[in-house]
Design a protein that fits this description.
By secondary structure, the chain is of the alpha/beta class. It is 38% helix and 22% strand. It is built from 14 helices and 20 strands. The strands form 4 sheets. The chain has a 6-stranded mixed beta sheet with strand order 1-5-4-2-3-6, with helices on both faces. It has a 5-stranded mixed beta sheet with strand order 8-7-9-10-11, sandwiched between helices. A 5-stranded antiparallel beta sheet has the order 16-20-19-18-17, covered by helices on one side. The longest helix has 23 residues.
Amino acid sequence: MEEPKKSMFGTSGIRGVVNTEVTPILALRIGAALADVFRTGLLTLGRDTRTSGQMLSSAVAAGALSGGLGVVDLGVLPTPALAYLTKSLKAVSGVMVTASHNPPEFNGLKLFDREGKAYDTVLQTQIENTYQEGRCARVDWKQLKNVSSVDHNLAYRNMITSGTGLERRWDVAVDFGSGASHQIASDIFRSLRCRVVTLNAQPDGFFPGRDSEPTHESLGTLSATVRRMACDIGIAFDGDADRVSFVDESGRYIPGDVALAAFSSRLVAERKGGTVAIPIDSSLSVQEAIEMRGGKVVWTKVGDANVAEAIIRTKALFGGEPSGAWIHPNYHLCPDGILSAVLTMKAVEQTKASIHEFFSKVPTYPVKRGKISCSNNLKAKVMRDLASDLPKALGGKPKITELDGVRIQVPSGWLLVRPSGTEPAIRLTAEARSEQLVEQLFKTAHDLCIDRIREYQA
């Protein structure tokens, strides 16, 4: 396996531990690099609720201003709102200061182009080269622009509410995870006549109520609240609300693959066909659900930027990841947890089913996901070894795909091992038609990965 070229950009922008990997100096230089590339125009800037957000966004603004860009500081808001407003305000670029679902000690910069889409590899390379070469435009003091702080959130709220009116009055429990969606999502649900029960609605960069990532393990309180308050649905967002997770009316957590399969297959059925873009770590159940309704799947690398690129390239009607990052191109090209929640509720209404009935129609297979801590400087070496070791350990003649990491297809199952693009870890996914095979695949990969990491750390 070829050792990948190291890049400051992962699968979802630049991300790392604050004041260790992601520093004000880095943010300042990224702002300056953006100004050097674009020279003139407006930069939109937003942040989630992390304690380091103001520090880093101020640094980005300073770098951009020094090179002649104007800056509109949108304050604390969800990533999809920043992306949507970047396009609607006709900005040359947007910067969201966020680490999305990562723990509170992380932060990062996610860059959006003038269409509100995450930077593709061409733009990433251009910015990274400018950064590494230390190029930065400087304008005369008389040409410096200002920072404006006008609230433009109404445009984003109207985008969702004007096109997705709900027919029934929903009782909704929403867990904001102390993240950036705490105000705007509440406003949207209430404007759609929902009765809203809120959890972790206080903005807090330490995420005291639960982990920022809305997983089965972190949503126990949401599940209990749905049952206790007799809600129709439970909804949870990550720190910047580009991801969504669901709990049904009985408090049962809906796995990400199941949610993705149910929504995408319903959309394909409604449109009488069409292409759906999904990453290579998606369950077989997603592919089957889409194809059973006459749709077509196009596989992508993991990461919403890759999904967005595939949507554009194939004119797909939808694209999404099992993590809950779903892209609706009829609205915009950024994963949008709030929009996804509302559109899911709309789809459930159209089928005249309950949340449980809507999701329970998806056939599922045993799947196991996990991650192993691995420093970023060891990832390439470990992955190179695993590409050689795993096929031998599994035996036979498995089908090997290296679109993103190493994916190994065996009779009745598959295994994916890939370096995380958002944190120092290697991610493992195994799926099979039996629990025994899933455990075997996962354990084989897990043990080999641990062995290789220890060897290099010794």
